[in-house]
Amino acid sequence: MRMNRGFAAACLACCATWGTVAAQDKAGDGLAIGRQMLAEDNPGELWIEQGKALFHGLHGPRKASLERCDFGMGPGKLEGAAAQLPRYFADTDKVQDLESRLLTCMVQIQGFQHEDIVKRAVSPAGSNGSDVEALALYITSRSNGMKMNPPLSHVKERETYKAGEYLFFRRSGQTDFGCVQCHGEANKRIRLQDLLHMTDKKGAQEVASTWPAYRGGHYVIRTMQWRLYDCFWQMRLPELKYGSDTSIALISYLHHQGSGVMIKVPGFKR
Amino acid sequence: MSEPMRIRATLQGDTADVRVLMLHPMETGQRRDGKGQIVPLHFIQSVLITHNGRTVLDAQWSQAVSRNPFLGVRIKGAKVGDKISVTWTDNKGDKRTDEATVAAAS
Amino acid sequence: MRKSWMKGMLLFAPALIAVGCASYPDEATTRGLAEKMVSTDFTAPTPALLNRLVQDRSQQICSKIADAKLTQEEAAEVVKLARASIRYPSGGLVGDWKIGDKLAHNGAGSRIQRGQLEKRKENGGLCQNCHALAPGEINVGNIGPSLTGYGTQRGNSEPVAKLTYERIYNGWAYAPCSNMPRLGATGHLTPEQITHLVAYLIDPQSPINQKK
Q1: Which pLDDT band holds residue A36 (cuts at 50, 70, 90)?
Q2: Scanning every residue of chain A, which has its alpha carbon at the shortest distance from the alpha carbon of C145?
Q3: Rounded-to-integer distance, Cα A91 and Cα A172, Å
Q4: Superfamily name and number for A42-269
Q5: Residues of A in contact with B3 (CB under 8 A)
Q6: Nearest by CB to A41, which of B3, B67, B72?
Q7: Closest Cβ opposite residue C143 in set A1, A152, A188
Q8: Model's pTM, two decimal places?
Q9: Is C24 helix (H, G, I), strand (E, B) or coil?
Q10: Domains of chain B by range and CATH?
Q11: Which residues of chain A make contact with C130, given a CB cutoff of 8 A?
């Protein structure tokens, strides 16, 4: 009986927080000022209208709109939806992030082929961008100003979060890299590209609030799925499948680490 | 033939915050293609912006401006419903005009 | 009174577990789920390339989650495996610093994209990505310590050359589980390439050892 009470107390105690260490401020510098100026006039915003049209218009072999798509708040309800992703969905019986959920709807409601969407999901640099990029941006922008707060109540949500944490620290390949090798410390950079400190609250919040983003050097909107794929590319690891459970788990981990931040998209990246 | 510009004009106080993305290759004439041939010079040479028909910006650009130029302009004395017109002309003689209406800040 | 309290606990406990007791999922369950994801969620042009995701013993030990610490025994095991992995070149340990200079600034090679393996003449050393090199270069990373003046500080004796060679071939022989890739041991760089990097670091003529 004493064991029961202790067990209960321990459970309640460790249920209290999932938070991480306190934030560290980054001193301003010349490059930061320049980036700030670029970010204030973000061309990425010009894709929001395109995403809106794609969302409400009739598209795909079934000539249907995505208005019936449920992102977790009910069919067609977008306000605040991105702020609660990834989350568990009963109809697919899995935890999904925004892009994999968008894929589900484009296939089931609009009749697109999964492989076709995936093939076109990442647009060539300098192009007009892909449908998925514009849609992901539009849907996320409907949560602008809201706090990132994905749920952790379903057992699969907990499993996904924990798997994401495991994967963040998992080292493999000829570089012996896991995400933590580059994103586990403050004030680090690769060449002149500053790295976000993702095991810190502030760094994780920046990840969670600024994707999809306008990638200056590519002249198009890029999404979180693309960003994860690109990291594995640089780590000399095999190609991450679009919308895979690995990607959803990592996104879940990052969104939980960065919870509480106000969403503000499109972000602006180099 | 050319891609439409993306224009957004939002009123902030009495100033229209105008953002224009012009989709144009802006070739410098120094780049070589996969076969080693020079990609010919092709760039926007002039840009004209009018506000209710009145010229507010008249610019001459060079090939130094990069691909898909993005232009942000603040126009004072604007009101919701005002017409913003953007025209670009390139060195091949191609010309394109797109318009937008000043909208209220959302 | 005791009995009713206990009954209350028995009713309450499952709810606690369902609602979010931090004991589920445990480490073993998480590992199983995550490793299954890794085995299905990636593609590569060949099975050999897909095997890059398979962890060796040292990587498994060194993948500590969050604040988990490396034990003495684990550190010793990683060091032992690292020492055993080191292969020396057929010739000397010090190559040509001019070749090493190019190699140190080369961040390309061996990446996989759109079903293709990046094929270059050779894999780059990747050094500039994480380390400061010759004085005055600003486009350098800071994940690793600065290597500016490496040879000036240590000299270019044989023991220094050997240590430098080994730390590039498999740095975990000296700093188990460090962020430094085991460039030689994993095959990213050849022993010959590493001799050029050694020269770049310790040769008094090398740019890395000049005053700015």
Answers
A1: confident
A2: A188
A3: 34
A4: Cytochrome c-like domain (1.10.760.10)
A5: 128
A6: B72
A7: A188
A8: 0.86
A9: coil
A10: 6-104 (2.60.40.10)
A11: 190
